[in-house]
């Protein structure tokens, strides 16, 4: 169009093609197009630049986004709006450069922009995530004092979350009370943060009180609400209460997610309640909307192996693989030691070979425990090969001794 026909595309065309490139993940091409269009005198709308900057940050390229933004305004290629600054301030906050973020806030007036509630929310959230919650709280206090740009539920919740993560529940509740006094309505996220904070502090009485407040204020509980309550009860060792909340989820027509399953299965296994853990695992296997994760299966496999139920553990691994979930280093280690404890050294050696062939490099704990079991079984000749394979110098597919080969007719479901 430009080189052969001498036709200069209009600003809308540049925006459209740059947006298409951004959608396709061709972020550098989008940047080149916008820069070229601007240099050719096209007055491209700020939203096209903002969309690209936001995409760069979302793809982990915050530094590139900030550099591009600064080069554009330095060259006078476009006039940023409030959204432009909010996007870039979010980027520098992710980089942890809060001084730069504050400088950008100060520069907004140069372009006729004023920081809005979203600007302050980005700053407060960034500070709190960086464990500078006191500074985040100070920004909140300044907003309350100035009264020009009022904080909203997101602002308060970010500070509450920061204090909860730091284990400062009294400070979190103080901000919550300020929130109520200001007339700002807490939402489900606010209560989830407090419930989770009290659960981690092992204060389930306060966590339940927050849950009741959530219900009284007609905030709909979600899967995070119930997962936080279940996690809190599990941390306190109150598994019966955790299971009661599990059932209560169903009354609200809320399905547990993969993390809810993980929390309760891990806790049941810790208390040696393998039958109940297996029931929950079967429930998970019936869900077609959840992709099972290895870290959920491993505690069940471990408790079965420790209880001498190695064959049942093998069946769990079969179920895992049928669901497209492959054993990891911990799965293999659990199974190897489990087979050793049952005196099934040849099967354990086969599992060790499979572990290495699968790309799961055994660590020192696995190797030392395995070697100890092999030596106790009176098979010193196998130790050198195990150590060689573990060091990466041996072949995992190397055949085992003829004496072992005769004993490997026992099926191992991995």
From TrEMBL:
InterPro entries: PPR/CCM1_RNA-binding, PPR_rpt, TPR-like_helical_dom_sf. The keyword Magnesium does not apply. One of its GO terms (molecular function) is mRNA binding. NCBIfam families: PPR. The keyword Ribonucleoprotein does not apply. This is Pentatricopeptide repeat-containing protein. Pfam families: PPR, PPR_2. Keywords: Repeat, Transit peptide.
């Amino acid at each position: 169009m430009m080189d052969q026909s001498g036709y200069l595309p209009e600003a809308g065309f540049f925006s459209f093609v740059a947006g298409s490139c951004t959608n396709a993940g061709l972020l550098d091409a989008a940047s080149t197009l916008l820069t070229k269009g601007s240099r050719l005198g096209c007055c491209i709308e700020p939203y096209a630049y903002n969309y690209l900057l936001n995409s760069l940050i979302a793809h982990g390229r915050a530094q590139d986004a900030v550099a591009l933004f600064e080069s554009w305004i330095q060259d006078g290629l476009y006039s940023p709006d409030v959204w432009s600054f909010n996007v870039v301030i979010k980027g520098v906050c992710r980089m942890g450069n809060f001084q730069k973020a504050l400088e950008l806030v100060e520069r907004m007036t140069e372009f006729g922009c004023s920081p809005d509630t979203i600007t302050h929310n980005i700053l407060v959230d960034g500070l709190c995530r960086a464990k500078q919650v006191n500074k985040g709280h100070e920004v909140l206090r300044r907003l309350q004092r100035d009264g020009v740009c009022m904080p909203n539920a997101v602002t308060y919740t970010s500070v509450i979350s920061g204090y909860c993560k730091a284990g400062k529940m009294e400070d979190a509740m103080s901000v919550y009370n300020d929130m109520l006094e200001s007339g700002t309505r807490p939402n489900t996220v606010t209560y989830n943060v407090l419930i989770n904070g009290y659960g981690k502090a092992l204060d389930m009485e306060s966590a339940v009180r927050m849950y009741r407040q959530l219900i009284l204020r007609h905030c709909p509980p979600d899967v995070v609400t119930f997962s936080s309550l279940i996690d809190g009860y599990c941390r306190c060792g109150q598994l019966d209460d955790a299971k009661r909340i599990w059932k209560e989820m169903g009354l609200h027509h809320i399905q547990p997610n993969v993390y809810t399953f993980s929390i309760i299965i891990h806790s049941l296994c810790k208390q040696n309640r393998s039958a109940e853990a297996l029931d929950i695992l079967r429930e998970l296997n019936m869900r077609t909307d959840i992709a099972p994760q290895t870290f959920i299966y491993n505690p069940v496999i471990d408790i079965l192996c420790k209880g001498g139920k190695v064959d049942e553990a093998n069946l769990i691994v079969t179920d895992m693989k049928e669901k497209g979930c492959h054993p990891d280093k911990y799965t293999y280690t659990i199974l190897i030691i489990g087979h050793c404890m049952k005196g099934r050294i040849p099967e354990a050696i086969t599992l060790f070979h499979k572990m290495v062939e699968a790309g799961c490099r055994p660590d020192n704990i696995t190797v030392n425990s395995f070697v100890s079991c092999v030596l106790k079984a009176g098979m010193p000749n196998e130790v050198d090969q195990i150590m060689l394979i573990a060091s990466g110098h041996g072949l995992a597919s190397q055949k085992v001794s003829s004496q072992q080969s005769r004993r490997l007719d026992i099926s191992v479901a991995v």
